């Protein structure tokens, strides 16, 4: 069975919604104090400098305001950090992840089997990391990459084994803890995530993937991903996320930092299907050197509220950025997502394509910023946002911000909002499709320009998720 | 916002302004309420992005700018037709007190923000335009000259059922023939338009104050069924301009167009805002703004198309284009869509760019000198908005100001 068939035939709802009994080796107390931070750091046996960074981040967190003064900001009133369990170390023997699925405890292995990860690894990936609760439990990469000097490991392990690199890049250049409240929170209690290092002129031709799973009720997941792509290298990193739904809220506040070297090319793809009690508040940022190219591809289907604006700083001449975003919000969901691009050098280019779908009282918002600095001559940016709405209980907002300090530029922003055309539906019905299928087909067509940019497994998965969201929801 | 409390302002100041104009009791009450609102009202919302505030209104020194008891203006009002009433606010109470009382403040709340409250508490000039049912007039003109440290103006337009009116308003600084006021000045202009069923109001405004003046202008209209309000907002003067033009489409089948132009030179700062709220069925809005920036001028633009839950069959469009003539200029823009009903066709677009190099090359190859060629292209850039201006005289005035700035 090909991976594509496998994904098609698996019942997607069952794949994401199952729960496992909570079993942990170490679980922190609820809430956040200096003591919590020290306990986490100690349990990980971290060097002193990392503990200091955590404590500094904690200070920022305590000082900073919630992002509630933004226009039309999602409601975060339920997010009480004192109700969150910030750290759960799963009950496994090997810290930093085993490299053989069969060595994992049965219930964890079963979790990832159901999610289709080992199957995908066999067929289409250069490497896989899998995080369960707060730590990576499985990590493996094909040997040929290891021989070329590519590093793909658990972030906690990287702190120990690649200390110099981590010390230089970890929350110092791209995402300082002072950036926003949740970046500060992340800096204080981060755990797990991936470290990727691609040496000069190395092209990793199949994607590497990390999968993040929250299993316990009321937990927070704060994984950190650090990608360093040296000059002339190329890598595609894929991140998948899910959790079963509980009555209490979960919090996911990841941090992603990407360093795109000269003429390097990094693609970062995310398909986020958090359960609808999860607050997904992430900070993701890339810095691109001369001629470097950064691509962000994001599908946001899950979560109760998402605030996510992947950013790229185009630092070197001729650097470029592409953002591709799909957001879908159903009942009770508020998906506030977008893109940020800073053009800080001449001849830089960016494009943003955003597609959103709001239905059953859900809200989508494109919130984006393009900044062109004085002196960034011959820069160009094009932002395109299209939104589809199903009913008048839903909301579709578009809030772009453009700051242009340079005259020799080409800046364009366009947005449209509309409903599904009655004529299109009528046409499809006249061809024998029922109403639901017709609408599903139109939605698939609406997002196709974006899904076709994704690797096939992800395109299939995204389409399945969209179909799942659409099922039975249409009157 | 107590930090903005102005010491020279007191209940007594407001009473003196009202007494001098022999105003009815309800208006004095409205002024005193506005004065009270100053205690809590905030400055108008300004766009903020990480690390940046697009317009710094906090920096304005209202203590120095506001001189409530020495306001002075020279305003010429022509009706062009005796079926329409065009009067200074203060002379309209005897005959039209009831109409004014019924409509004053019905569109704009004095406590909307700190600057509206200040304006309602202190206004001394302004115009009342009353267009009775079925009357159709094209030539209402209000030409105002500002001759004091600060000037607060309040305009109310009431267009009754099936009436139609075109109003052109202009504001400039006095030529100094009177007593000269040196240093920074402040002009505040509030305009309310009430468009009755099937009424049609076109309101053109041309601001060309001198470069020592700070301008705050808020114009808002409300439409009844099938009514139309078309705004033309042209800003050329002032050191800093904050301009808001807004329509609430409250009647089924009503329409609004907001056309904006600006041209910034030196260190002028324009904060231009166009907003429309679709709150009824079958409504249409079209927002078109074009601006040019030279030297170190800066523009900030916010356009909002808000479609309410019950606004079935809405059409809403927005375009904003900024042309940069200088490397040191800055253009910020944020066109927003807030959509709560799916039965909507809405779009917006915004661009920032410079004069097209190929066009310039073409003209130069036809032996036109570079400066003239550039100027021709800038004039050409404004054509799409000139075309939206139906009144010849107004269009000519705006064109003239564009040409003047290109010299």
Automatic annotation (TrEMBL), chain A:
Protein name per UniProt: FeS assembly protein SufB
Family: Belongs to the iron-sulfur cluster assembly SufBD family.
Disordered: region residues: 1-34
Domain SUF system FeS cluster assembly SufBD N-terminal: 137-209
Organism: Halorubrum aidingense JCM 13560
Record-level GO BP terms: iron-sulfur cluster assembly
Pfam family, one: SufBD_N
Limits of the SUF system FeS cluster assembly SufBD core domain: 212-446
Automatic annotation (TrEMBL), chain B:
Domain SUF system FeS cluster assembly SufBD N-terminal, chain residue ranges per copy: 76-139
Example GO BP: iron-sulfur cluster assembly
Pfam families on file: SUFBD_core, SufBD_N
Chain ranges of the SUF system FeS cluster assembly SufBD core domain: 147-381
InterPro entries on file: Fe-S_cluster_assembly_SufBD, SUF_FeS_clus_asmbl_SufBD_core, SUF_FeS_clus_asmbl_SufBD_sf, SUF_FeS_clus_asmbl_SufD, SufBD_N
Domain of life: Archaea
Family statement drawn from the similarity comment of this UniProt entry: Belongs to the iron-sulfur cluster assembly SufBD family.
Record protein name field: SufBD protein
Lineage, top ranks: Archaea, Methanobacteriati, Methanobacteriota, Stenosarchaea group, Halobacteria
């Amino acid at each position: 069975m090909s991976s594509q068939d496998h994904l098609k035939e698996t019942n997607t709802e069952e794949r994401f919604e199952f729960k496992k009994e909570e079993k942990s080796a170490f679980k922190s107390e609820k809430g956040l104090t200096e003591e919590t931070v020290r306990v986490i750091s100690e349990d990980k046996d971290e060097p002193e400098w990392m503990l200091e960074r955590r404590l500094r981040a904690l200070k920022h967190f305590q000082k900073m305001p919630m992002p509630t003064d933004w226009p039309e900001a999602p409601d975060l009133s339920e997010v009480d950090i004192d109700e969150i369990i910030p750290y759960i170390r799963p009950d496994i023997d090997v810290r930093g992840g085993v490299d053989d699925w069969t060595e994992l405890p049965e219930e964890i292995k079963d979790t990832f089997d159901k999610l289709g990860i080992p199957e995908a690894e066999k067929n289409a990936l250069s490497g896989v990391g899998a995080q369960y609760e707060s730590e990576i439990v499985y990590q493996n990469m094909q040997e040929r990459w290891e021989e070329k000097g590519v590093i793909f490991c658990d972030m906690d392990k990287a702190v120990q084994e690649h200390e110099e690199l981590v010390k230089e890049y970890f929350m110092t250049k791209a995402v300082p803890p002072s950036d926003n409240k949740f970046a500060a929170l992340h800096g204080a209690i981060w755990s797990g995530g991936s470290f990727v290092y691609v040496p000069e002129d190395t092209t990793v031709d199949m994607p590497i993937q990390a999968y993040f799973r929250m299993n316990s009720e009321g937990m927070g997941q704060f994984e950190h991903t650090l990608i360093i792509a040296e000059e002339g290298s190329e890598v595609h990193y894929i991140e998948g996320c899910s959790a079963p739904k509980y009555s209490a809220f979960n919090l996911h506040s990841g941090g992603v930092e990407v360093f795109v070297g000269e003429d390097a090319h990094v693609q970062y793809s995310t398909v986020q299907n958090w359960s609808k009690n999860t607050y997904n508040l992430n900070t993701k940022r890339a810095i691109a050197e001369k001629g470097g190219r950064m691509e962000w591809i994001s599908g946001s289907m899950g979560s109760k509220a998402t605030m996510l604006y992947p950013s790229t700083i185009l630092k070197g001449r001729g650097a470029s950025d592409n953002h591709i975003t799909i957001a879908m919000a159903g009942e009770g969901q508020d998906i506030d997502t977008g893109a940020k691009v800073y053009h800080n050098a001449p001849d830089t280019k960016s494009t943003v394509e955003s597609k959103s779908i709001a239905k059953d009282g859900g809200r989508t918002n494109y919130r984006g910023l393009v900044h062109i600095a004085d002196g960034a001559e011959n820069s160009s940016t094009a932002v395109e946002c299209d939104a589809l709405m199903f009913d008048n209980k839903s909301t579709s907002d578009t809030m772009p911000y453009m700051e242009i300090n340079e005259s020799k530029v080409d800046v364009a922003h366009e947005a449209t909002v509309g409903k599904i055309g009655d004529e299109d539906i009528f046409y499809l019905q006249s061809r024998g499709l029922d109403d639901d299928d017709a609408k599903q087909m139109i939605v698939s067509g609406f997002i196709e320009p974006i899904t076709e940019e994704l690797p096939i497994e992800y395109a299939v998965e995204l389409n399945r998720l969209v179909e799942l969201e659409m099922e039975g929801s249409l009157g | 916002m107590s930090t903005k409390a102005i010491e020279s302002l007191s209940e007594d100041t407001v009473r003196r302004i009202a007494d001098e104009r022999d105003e009815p009791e309800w208006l004095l009450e409205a002024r005193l309420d506005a004065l009270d609102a100053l205690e809590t009202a905030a400055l108008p919302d300004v766009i903020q992005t990480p690390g940046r505030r697009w317009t710094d209104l906090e920096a304005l020194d209202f203590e120095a700018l506001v001189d409530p008891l020495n306001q002075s203006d020279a305003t010429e009002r022509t009706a062009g037709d005796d079926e329409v009433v065009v009067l200074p606010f203060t002379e309209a109470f005897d005959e039209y007190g009831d109409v004014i009382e019924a409509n004053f403040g019905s569109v704009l709340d004095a406590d909307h923000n700190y600057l509206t409250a200040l304006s309602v508490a202190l206004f001394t000039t302004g115009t009342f335009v009353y267009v009775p049912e079925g009357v159709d007039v094209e030539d209402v003109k209000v030409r105002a000259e500002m001759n004091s440290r600060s000037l607060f103006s309040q305009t109310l337009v009431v267009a009754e059922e099936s009436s139609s009116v075109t109003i052109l308003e202009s504001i400039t600084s006095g030529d100094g023939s009177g007593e000269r006021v040196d240093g920074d000045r402040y002009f505040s202009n509030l305009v309310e338009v009430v468009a009755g069923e099937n009424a049609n109001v076109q309101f053109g405004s041309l601001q060309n104050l001198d470069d020592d003046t700070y301008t705050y202008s808020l114009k808002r209209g409300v439409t009844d069924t099938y009514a139309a309000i078309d705004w033309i907002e042209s800003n050329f003067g002032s050191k800093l301009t904050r301009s808001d033009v807004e329509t609430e489409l409250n009647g089924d089948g009503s329409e609004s167009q907001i056309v904006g132009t600006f041209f910034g030179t030196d260190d002028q700062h324009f904060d231009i805002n166009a907003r429309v709220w679709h709150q009824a069925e079958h409504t249409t809005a079209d927002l078109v703004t074009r601006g040019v920036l030279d030297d170190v001028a800066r523009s900030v633009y916010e356009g909002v198309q808000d479609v309410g839950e019950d606004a079935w069959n809405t059409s809403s469009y927005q375009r904003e284009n900024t042309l940069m003539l200088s490397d040191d200029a800055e253009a910020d823009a944020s066109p927003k869509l807030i959509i709560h009903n799916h039965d909507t066709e809405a779009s917006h677009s915004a661009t920032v760019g410079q004069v097209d190099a190929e066009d310039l090359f073409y003209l130069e190859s036809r032996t036109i000198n570079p400066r003239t060629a550039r100027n021709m292209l800038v004039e050409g850039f404004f054509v799409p908005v000139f075309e939206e201006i139906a009144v010849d005289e107004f269009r000519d005035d705006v064109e003239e100001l564009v040409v003047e700035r290109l010299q």
